[in-house]
């Protein structure tokens, strides 16, 4: 039997994707207005600072029912005031769509928030696996000194609803207090 080489490769030690249909998006501080609570600290920082990047294998067109998307997120270490660098966080546009995350490198926190605002959290470490149920917003926070790399797989018709989180935020924050992270 002939066996062709896969069109995409993943470096399982870093999460890095290379090959066909791989795209990358970058979120700098200037793209994250209103996400961090300390506005003065936010404005004092270089707006070009990269907070996180997402590599995606987007073989399916966004919105395709029945398909899957796959990606790696890299959240860089840093803080705005006392708040650690984190992703914008989102509900899925199709609220019932679930997602898997898994830890690859670094040390983080995954925040989950229900539609009624209850927040729970799981520690993200290399090899940790996280199931995000439908109707649940999710946000990654880097509480470590190194890059936090997290893999993800989600339905291609899930979509992202960032507006809800931008408006009301997460009801719990991850802040540094006396040198250690606190969820409060
Ligand atoms: Fe998601």
Write up what this structure looks like:
The protein has helices at 39-44, 163-168, and strands spanning 8-10, 17-19, 22-28, 50-57, 68-75, 79-80, 83-84, 99-105, 108-114, 119-124, 129-132, 136-142, 148-155, 174-177, 180-183. The protein has 184 residues and is mainly beta. It has one domain (8-183): Jelly Rolls (Sandwich), CATH 2.60.120. The strands form five sheets. Strands 3-4-5-13-8-11 form a six-stranded antiparallel beta sheet, with no helix packed on it. Strands 10-9-12 form a three-stranded antiparallel beta sheet, with no helix packed on it. The structure holds fe (ii) ion. Fe (ii) ion is lined by residues 90, 92, 99, 138, 154.
Q: What keywords describe this structure?
A:
binds fe (ii) ion, mainly beta, Jelly Rolls, three-stranded antiparallel beta sheet, 184 residues, 15 strands, 7% helix, globular, 2 helices, six-stranded antiparallel beta sheet
What's a concise summary of this model?
The chain is mainly β and 184 residues long. The protein has helices spanning 39-44, 163-168, and strands at 8-10, 17-19, 22-28, 50-57, 68-75, 79-80, 83-84, 99-105, 108-114, 119-124, 129-132, 136-142, 148-155, 174-177, 180-183.
């Amino acid at each position: 039997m002939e066996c062709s080489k896969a069109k995409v490769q993943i470096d399982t030690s870093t999460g890095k994707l290379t090959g066909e249909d791989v795209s990358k998006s970058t979120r700098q501080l200037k793209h994250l207005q209103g996400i961090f609570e300390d506005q003065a600290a936010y404005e004092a920082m270089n707006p070009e600072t990269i907070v996180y990047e997402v590599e995606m294998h987007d073989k399916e067109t966004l919105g395709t029912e029945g398909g899957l998307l796959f990606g790696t997120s890299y959240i860089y270490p840093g803080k705005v005031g006392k708040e650690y660098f984190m992703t914008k966080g989102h509900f899925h546009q199709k609220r019932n769509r679930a997602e898997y995350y898994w830890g690859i490198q670094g040390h983080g926190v995954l925040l989950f928030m229900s539609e009624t605002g209850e927040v729970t959290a799981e520690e993200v470490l290399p090899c940790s696996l996280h199931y995000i149920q439908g109707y649940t917003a999710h946000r990654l926070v880097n509480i470590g000194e190194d890059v936090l790399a997290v893999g993800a797989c989600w339905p291609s018709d899930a979509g992202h609803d960032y507006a809800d989180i931008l408006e009301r935020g997460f009801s719990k924050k991850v802040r540094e207090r006396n040198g250690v992270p606190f969820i409060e």
